[in-house]
Amino acid sequence: MEIISGTALAKQIRQKLAAEVSLLTCQHGRAPKLAIILVGDHSASMTYVNSKVKAAAEVGIQCEHIHLPESTSQEELLTLIRRLNAEPDTDGILVQLPLPPHINTDTVLLSIDPQKDVDGLHIVNVGKLASGRKAIQACTPRGVISLLKSAHITIAGKHAVIAGRSNLVGSPMALLLLRENATVTVCHSQTQNIAAHVAQADILVTAMGKTGVITPDMLKPGVVLIDVAMNYDDQGKLRGDVYTKDDLPLLEEKVAAATPVPGGVGPMTIASLLQNTVDIYKENISHC
Ligand code: GUN
C-alpha cells in the first residue's frame, strides 16, 4: 500500500510558492495579500486560522488576521468585508467557518467579491465549477485532486465515491472529480445501504465527520482511500472517518493507496489556500 503524504506534498507546494512569490514581489512591488476573518473563539477554528496565518507568512503572503469578538453583528462583519472588497491590494478574503449562530453564513459568503473568494465558496465560483468553467476552487477538494495527481493515480474512468455532501468538501469534491472524468457517486445521511456504494469505489473520499459508519471490511480491494475527516475519539485521539494513521498497516491487504490521518488532506487544505491566493494575485498584477 502506498501512503500518500499530504505533509510532504504541501511542503513542496509551499517551497515552490515561496520562490515564485519572492520573485513576483520584487518585480511588482507588492506581496500577495490575504485577509482572514475569525469571529468568536471557536477553539478548532482558532487553531486552523493560526496555521493558515503561519503558512501564509512562510511563503511571503502578507496576511491580515482580523479576530472579531463573538458579539460582532452581521452588519459589522458585512461592513468589514465591503472595506476589504474595495481595497485593491487585498487579493483574497477568507471568513473562517462556522460563524456564530446570529450571523447568516450565506449572506456573509455572498458579500465577498467572487474574485477575492479565496475559499471558492461564493455561488459564482460554485456555479462556474459546476458548469465546467475556470473557477476558484474550494481548498480541500483542490488539495485532494493534487494529492491524487501527485501519486499518479488515474482518475478518468474510475468510480469515485464520496461520503458527505457539504458545501465545503463533498459537493465541490464531486464537481472536481467529474471534471477529471471520474464517474461520481455522492453518499449522504439519507443514503440507503451505504456499504453497497462503498464496495463499488475505486477512489473513496470520506468527509462525514463521523468515525465508524464506513469500516475497512466494506472496501473494494485495490481502492484508493482519501480520508478527509478529522474526528476526535473518546480518548481525544485524532481519527479519520475510516481509520487513523496507526490503522494503516491493517488496511495493507485491501488498499492500494491511502492518505494518513493526520498528515494527509489537512496540510493540503492550507497549501491549496496559498495556491488560490497566489493565483488571484497573479491575475491582479497582470492587469496592472
Ligand atoms: N472551516 C473548516 N474548514 C474551513 C475552510 O476550508 N474554509 C473556511 N472558510 N472555513 C473552514
Structure description:
- By secondary structure, this protein is an alpha/beta fold.
- It folds into 2 domains: 29-116, Leucine Dehydrogenase, chain A, domain 1 (Rossmann fold), CATH 3.40.50.10860; 139-266, NAD(P)-binding Rossmann-like Domain (Rossmann fold).
- It contains 10 helices and 11 strands.
- The protein has helices at 6-28, 43-58, 74-86, 105-111, 123-130, 139-150, 170-179, 194-198, 248-251, 265-286; strands at residues 2-3, 33-39, 62-68, 92-95, 159-163, 183-187, 203-206, 223-227, 231-232, 238-239, 255-258.
- The strands form 3 sheets. The chain has a 6-stranded parallel sheet with strand order 1-11-8-7-5-6.
- β9 and β10 form a beta hairpin.
- α1 (6-28) packs parallel to α10 (265-286), α2 crosses α10 and α6 crosses α10.
- It is globular and about 55 Å long.
- The protein starts with a strand and ends with a helix.
- The relative contact order is 0.16.
- The structure holds guanine.
- Residues 48, 94-97, 119, 139-140, 168, 269 line the site of guanine (GUN).
